[in-house]
Fold each of these.
Amino acid sequence: MTFRNAALYALMAGGLAVLGLPSGPTPIALMVGLMLLIILVARFPARQGAWLGFFFGLGYFSLGFSWMLTSLHQYGDIPWVGSIPILLIFSAFMALYPALFGAVLACLAPRPRLLPLAAPALWVVTEWLRSHVLGGFAWNLVGYGWDRWTPFLQVADLGGVFLLSWLMVWPAAVGASLWLRRATGREIGLQCGAVALVLGVVFGYGEWRMTTLQTRQQQDTRPPIRVAIVQGNIPQQLKWATTQQKDTLDRYLQLSRSLPRPVDLVVWPETAMSFFFRANPDYVQQITQLSRELGTTILTGTPSVDRESADDPWRFYNSMVLLDETGSLEQRYDKYHLVPFGEFIPLRAFLPATFKKLTAGSEDFSSGPGPVPLAWGKGDIGPLICYEAIFPDEVRVLATTGVQWLVNITNDAWFGDTAKPQHLAMVRLRAVENRLPMIRSANTGLSAVFDDTGLELGRTHPDVAETLVVTLPHGSGQSFYQSYGAWWIGLWIGLLILARVRGRRMTRQLVQ
């Protein structure tokens, strides 16, 4: 096989793998795409392996992130002739991580027999790097391909989404090893039996964990809470129009008044209130009046502005505020992991003043103090605004503060349709990893509520204005991943070292 043909096949394998993501038709496609990549990389030296990984990543990310075109063109006012190159450049940058995989795999696994040891661990290390380097972008990790099979997701309470990624790549590496070695029928049977055994154990663990946790829920003496989600479905084109503010507020007030009572918590989406609360006391009064009518607390997204003193510049925040009948604005969380180019411009001081964000407003948002809980009488809330929910390690840190509920408010209106199920799958897994219920309110959907097993208790329809009321049990709030998740990267690196040692030993034996 020529390298040119291999590069084309790698690009196609990346595109095939996208079909296994939550928005695609079958998760098997993800495993097959990864197997093809490993087969191709194993046939070439490190330099060419890097290029093959790069082309795989280019296909995988260009299609997997295609929803960005909606953000760039429709809402960022960037013509198609500019939007497509921007997507390709970003995808090429993300493709550096599969390129690293392709380059290093040849060194760690000089023989096909080492692929099942080296390839899954190496892939997970590159995903971990992609989640952390330069702020990270943990979207579409391959572990989310298991989203359709809830029992498999349960091992996330041991090793998070990265363990699920390992479980996605390992069978692919076994298949690649067998193909490259032209294995005998007996070897194929034994290896496939081992894969089936491991996946069977994972499935059995998942069924057991779901049963035990659901039994604990039934025996829990703490009363469940009734949560109401209000999905306003405000078009992105109108969301930030000052003439729309009153109509937007009226829609949320009207939808909330239609809720069946009693409810303990009403959750509105990210920036549901697209105005500064302190500058609009009349609007705050209407919301606190609603809180009194419903006898409940209202959690809403809103922009905020502050400064430490009269001499300091104003700082703008993307916030989440708990409002009750007192109208106090003290219970406020400010988003700290901001979206580059959407909420702030990196290296702003070195760019021309005409360089604007993709979202409304000329000012950059500032970062909040970090993952901190919101105090609520029925249990502290773990706040997550939009993009923050895709970072497993950051949510894990928040979970260790003793929160009882995770709440993700978001506005996915400025993404394409494929992003909505992808984002929802990531949010769902955060509940499983930390064994905490997850409440998600999205402006245009998908809004949903999950218990601590990741079981969906209710969901709204996309692109409609509606409400959802769910009775939500408490979660255990404890998991191995939550306590020891930071140490897993050491295990993956240890497996890579082991693969390297075994590879050198096998090479020396062949030379002798």
Amino acid sequence: MAQHYTARPGLPERELAAALWPLDAWAATSRALLAHIGRAPGPADRFTAYAAVVRHLLADPVLPPRLLPEDWSGADLRAAYEDYQREVTDAVWP
């Protein structure tokens, strides 16, 4: 005879998400990257900074907004990268 079990997390969903992913650390790194790309002086520096942005975005847990901290900077980081992509594309294919 097969047995079935049901489990429910002991934490509210937002706290559970914070326990499963390092959301505060991810957001802090994201804000630091945004500041860094704002200070990057030349094309090579900007390229290097945006390479770090891409690596960081790969670690984004992509959770629904209701599970994210209030100061989540993921959308800002993605927007900055999209602007950079447009900038590079426009420079290559005006």
Amino acid sequence: MEPKIIDGKAISAAVKEEVRAEVDRLKTAGREVTLAVVLVGDDPASAVYVRNKKKACEAVGIRSLSYEMPADTTQEKLLTCIAELNGRDDVDGILVQLPLPAGIDEQAVIRAIAPEKDVDGFHPVNVGLLAIGMPRVVSCTPAGVIEMLVRSGISIEGREALIIGRSNIVGKPLAHLMLQHNATVTVAHSRTADLPAVAKRADILVAAIGRPRMIGPEYVKEGAVVIDVGINRDTATGKLCGDVDYDAVAPHVSAITPVPGGVGPMTIAMLMKNCVELSKMR
């Protein structure tokens, strides 16, 4: 069986093109979409993510404001910065790059961002709206997974979907989104008994566990759709790899996402889309 390779780069490029057209339309109407990005500390991975987000903003015509604060920044100082951005009428979205340095309460920072400017969709108000089926913005990775499935013509309705991983950033919000698309949803995790047997039932399997190549053929039903959210560094080769053992699993599935080039590019595209949506709501 030759699987369909779900190309995140191509799909994200299409989303960004639509976002760019919308940004241009808003500009013509006198509104410049603006994203404020706050980076605390000098975590190299975070710096790369922030740089990529700025580049994406530039590509779609979104104005980005950058706030880079030293690692010894106090929580109070960070909260003051967020309060100021909440109050600015020319700022549509606020993104605080996670993880934050030790000593800063991540949840307090997330709660400090005004829900109507919470471009990541992490604020408890936005999480609650998603849970009751009235989402304002949805965290970017789960939104990207749904977008990939829909644009690849993969039906979600009536299918058994299994999400391996229950994080607040991916697993839980994705479960709510899948329910809204009428899937029958199971969320599995490190305490799930006989995970391979549970996984074998899934028509759509999403791996979001952060363990390199953990998901082999014994987890996958023949002809299933496999979405790999993991981004890990292979200790032997130093190359990027997912949570799925791609080469071993691909011959058994109908569609699969590669790593890199699958879910990753979608996350930033959906961030741009969220920023535009927040601007329009305001």
